[in-house]
Write a structure and sequence with these properties.
This protein is mostly helical and 285 residues long. The chain has a single domain, classed as ADP-ribosylglycohydrolase fold, CATH 1.10.4080. Helices cover 61% and strands 0% of the residues.
Length: 285
């Protein structure tokens, strides 16, 4: 693997939450996580059965495995390290081949790729018309953060999965945010994010950062997959924690799409506090 510490931390964040990913039952999670660590667990299938709302879609995954978004980043990094032809078109073919045997839940942007693959392969087109407003467009940046031409390359590869026009704003914002976290105070870095994003994102971010506790946060911000709410929740987590481990634990306890959020929480928190370290954790990449 390319020695990209930001990417490694991002993949850790994906794996950290997978055991409780997509459980939408805050009281249940609060009770379950009360007296123990809730990161890097095996899939808690019994807890999914107890939840008012949950999606237990990784039946064969184990502790250290990645969610779908994390796996896309992992495969893109492998492709860039190993493929003799490093183009979005070649990755379009590569990732389709990987997904034909993937043993896990395929998210909407992956399903779109699988549906259109044969037709688009004949047309030599890798860009999708599918508008996916999850975090995938920004997440791809973590693969390129410590590579050359990071923004330009991210924008090219993002088009495989989403036509979201906000990518042109969100990806440079993420690059600047990572740099600010290393060189400025967290307060200044958060203020700069608010100034960089478009109104719908800014409104959710302001709501989240004004919340005094997680109970208030859960009333104001959705824990689902949409990027506007997810980004706001990620920033709340950074504001209200003081270590990478604490940030990962809070992320899981909030429930919902915690593995996707975890990618960002971990990659961003390590710029402040260093990466999460434990001899007990091994990523299955």
């Amino acid at each position: 693997m390319n020695k990209n510490t930001t990417l490694t931390s991002a993949l850790q964040g994906s794996a950290s939450a997978l055991g409780l990913n997509w459980i939408y039952d805050a009281p249940l999670l609060e009770s379950f996580c009360k007296d123990k660590s809730c990161i890097f667990l095996n899939i808690q299938h019994d807890l999914y059965n107890q939840s008012k709302k949950a999606y237990d879609v990784y039946p064969n995954h184990q502790a250290g495995d990645l969610d779908f978004m994390g796996e896309i980043l992992n495969q893109l990094n492998k492709f860039l390290d190993e493929s003799p032809k490093k183009t979005p078109w070649e990755f379009f073919i590569y990732i389709h081949q990987f997904l034909t045997t993937y043993d896990g839940y395929i998210e909407s942007y992956g399903k779109d790729l699988m549906r259109r693959y044969e037709k688009d392969k004949l047309r030599c087109v890798y860009e999708t018309p599918h508008l996916d407003e999850q975090l995938i467009n920004m997440a791809i940046y973590f693969v390129f953060h410590e590579r050359d031409n990071s923004i330009e390359e991210t924008l090219k590869y993002t088009k495989i999965f989403t036509s979201d026009p906000s990518s042109k704003i969100l990806i440079p914002m993420l690059q600047d945010f990572l740099n600010d976290l290393e060189n400025e105070s967290l307060e200044i870095a958060l203020d700069n994010v608010k100034m960089s994003v478009t109104k719908p994102y800014k409104e959710q971010i302001i709501k989240a950062l004004n919340c005094k506790n997680k109970e208030e946060l859960l009333k104001e911000i959705s824990t689902a997959c949409g990027a506007k709410d997810a980004l706001a929740m990620i920033l709340y987590i950074l504001k209200h924690t003081s270590s990478t481990e604490e940030a990962l634990e809070l992320n899981v306890s909030l429930g919902g799409a915690s593995s996707a959020r975890g990618i960002f929480v971990s990659a961003l928190a390590q710029k402040l506090y260093g990466p999460y370290k434990s001899d007990k954790i091994k990523l299955n990449t």
